[in-house]
Amino acid sequence: MAQQQGDEMEYVADDNEMAEVEDDMYFRGRVFGDSESESDDDDEYDSMENRMTDTSAAEARKGKDIQGIPWDRLSISRERYRQTRLEQYKNYENIPQSGEQSEKECTLTYKGGKYYDFWQNTRSVKSTILHFQLRNLVWSTSKHDVYLVSSYSIMHWSSLNSKRSEILNVSGHVAPCEKHPGSLLEGFTQTQISTLAVRDKMLIAGGFQGELICKYIDRPGVSFCSRTTYDDNAITNAVEIYEHPSGAVHFMASNNDCGIRDFDMERFQLSKHFSFSWPVNHTSLSPDGKLLVIVGDNPEGMLVDSQTGKTVMPLCGHLDYSFASAWHPDGRIFATGNQDKTCRVWDVRNLSKSVAVLKGNLGAIRSIRFTSDGQFMAMAEPADFVHVYDAKNGFEKEQEIDFFGEISGVSFSPDTESLFIGVWDRTYGSLLQYNRRRNYMYLDCL
Fold first, then answer.
1. How far apart are CA 165 and CA 279, in angstroms?
2. Side by side, which strands form the sheet with 269-275?
3. I need a labelling partner for 114 at 20 to 30 A (CA). Which of 68, 182, 265, 416 fits?
């Protein structure tokens, strides 16, 4: 991934943020999504809350925009603005024209699937992004509990009681309160969070300088701090928490220094370290713990033996750099997301070609998630669109979730009942919640 975020982040903010429509006098003084500022504080945001109402499913059924955007008071319709976004959004590519070239192989899919229904949109939590290529900053641990990055804070949002709470603040000094070999007792100051993972009661945050901060959500303080590398190109691109076949809980960090590192969380000890020939942007472990999908700054990905780090098979087909991967719970199917605007679905029994090549509307596929029952797969573009595919029936049909704003992350709840989407935008930044459609579902409101 890009080592320096400054110019590229400006590129995304200046060209793709919704504030561009204000320059066309459509929004007449109302800032519709200019780039997020790290200097924004909670007091400023809280003062706006009275005039910024959330949206419920009942209100949406009555015609209210799910994000609360007052289209009837604007000089442009939603449909026209959507068309403007589709025409003007600039996808970031490391390899020129990769998005255009990839269209030749894309699988024809049918839209109109209805798998998850809109439930609510809350602007009480602001989801933010610090690196434009890294979008794994939203994690759900239950259908009511979600964790996300908001500037220098990691926040918890309960949709059950509509309350937010700060779990960890890294704007100042953070140091471990437990002693473990290899832990940096001096800790860190002003950590810029690049990636996040939360599972059960464990939270792992990765930083721009290779930092790893480990915290148990139900315990005070931080348990472990480590810097994976002092290399100049050190950013932690992704973290995955998983249960080892032995029953122990581990986590795996993917880094820009071309390495992946596996830690035993019981002792917070490094158990494996594999190095590759290009920066690793994302890694996913197969359900049986035997195989790793590794993607990064190379059009080809790799399927790797998790014990030895040796390549089992290259993954050929993508035309640009990849930033997302995920395994289907059956252990046979997995998916990779790329800046060529596609998500490729693979079958380990025949890796000579992809099972499906799924196309985005605007840009790169930067986040992929499967439901725990294997029924659905969600893939998120950089902005505006999350696609939910019927994985059980061959990825032939999809539900397209359509909104406006950069996407900080997507997460299904472990029980598959909820889908959370983080939206990054100064005015309309929020957390979207969709609930799984059930035939026996009760009306939420008369």
1. 35
2. 236-243, 249-255, 259-264, 269-275
3. 68
Residue position matching structure tokens 């140091």: 175
Q: Copy the structure tokens of residue 297.
A: 């700054």
The two tokens of residue 201 are 């009661």
Whole-angstrom distance, CA of residue 300 vs CA of residue 268:
32
The pairing of strands 110-111 and 418-424 is unpaired
Residue 251: both structure tokens together: 């986590």
User: Which amino acid is present at 42?
Assistant: D
Give pLDDT tens digits for 127-167. Answer: 899 999 999 999 999 999 999 999 999 999 999 999 999 99
Write the pLDDT tens digit of every residue in 187-213.
899 999 999 999 989 999 999 999 999
* Type of residue found at 237: N
List the beta strands (DSSP E) in 113-161: 116-122, 138-140, 145-150, 153-158
Q: At which residue do the structure tokens 């890796």 appear?
A: 351
The pTM (predicted TM-score) of the whole model is 0.90
Q: What is the Cα–Cα distance from 411 to 147, expressed in whole angstroms?
A: 10
Residue 111 backbone zone (phi > 0: left; psi -120 to 50: alpha; other: beta):
beta
Query: Taking a C-beta distance cutoff of 8 angstroms, is the pair 229, 210 a contact?
Result: yes
Nearest to 326 by CA among 307, 346, 306: 346
* Backbone φ/ψ region at 309: left (φ over 0), alpha (ψ -120 to 50), beta: left
- Among candidate residues 176, 208, 178, the one with its CA nearest the CA of residue 193: 208
- Measured in whole angstroms, the distance separating CA 412 from the mean position of its chain's CA atoms is 11
